[in-house]
Amino acid sequence: MQTFTIDSDNNITFYASLKQTEGSAEGTETFSSPKELGKLAAQWPGARLVEIWNSLPGVVPVKKFTSRELAVTRIWKAIQHLKPTVGAHRPTLASKKGSVGKKASRKARPLARKTSKTAQVIALLQQPTGATLKAIMKATGWQAHSVRGFVSGQLGKKMGLRVKSFQRDGERVYRILGRRPKSA
Question: Which residue has the higher pLDDT, 140 or 80?
Answer without folding.
Answer: 140
